[in-house]
Request: fold
Amino acid sequence: MKIGITGGSGFIGGYLSLALASRGDSVIIFSRKSNLPPLLKSQKDISLVSGKIPTQKDLENLDVLINLSGEPVMGGRWSGARKELLSQSRIEYTRELLNNLKLTTKLPTTFIAGSAIGFYGMHNDGNLSFYENSNPGEDFLSGLCVEWEKESLVAETLGIRTCILRTGIVLSPESGALAQMLPPFRAFVGGPIGSGKQVMSWIHIQDMVNSILFLIDNSAVKGVFNITAPEPVTNEEFSQKLAKTINRPCFMKVPSFAIEALYGEGANVVLLGQKVYPKRLEETGFKFKFRDLGECLKNLLT
Reply:
């Protein structure tokens, strides 16, 4: 298949591009970057189209279009300008992307769109559970995801099978939350963040990629999918298992005020959380390789 990926040179997109190329798909990465990372550049079935946004010509004759574009949520304090950038890189980008897609002479059969479990709002109550049919929250990140998904669902009106990925905390030692947590733990000063009661709905990078491949290949499924492992844990549980995996102590709590000083309102992404379950993904037959956090961390770090 010919598969286009916006954000394909990023953290998740890079892993996904390699997986698609390794099974024989032709991958076109749409990126603002002028060059691909060496590992992607060396793959004969991966090519780059550099630019602000794919044009009609760029999008012609794709079988699948995957939109993973978006500025990192934890890229800095949530100032007014930062919030606007987060919105533009998701909502407005997706709107313009689909407007260009409408102009093509042959539409793709499948559109896979990024979103996040932030859709459900940020919570410190571990007794609340969220599924794909749960209501959205009321904070900034929730509103961002709601509007982002609305733009993505325009693809359905074009007759394109559409899958929306409400992605959790993707674990890899190379990037994301785990990569940021590792240095203090390795320096013997790691521990829970804030209350430690906030729930982390995590997923191994391999299961993240495999879930997207599963949705690409199963033409009968569509709609919203929570992309998280079936066994979420609290931040305290996560910290303890991480410490055990790398043989380090877990006693230096990170105070809430330190995170708030760094990120302002955006600190809630770390200090609060959501207990999210991948109900629809499992109902459609997807099999997780890493359901248990301990096994996941052992695979990634040892």
The chain has twelve helices and 13 strands. The longest strand covers residues 110-116. The radius of gyration is 19 Å.
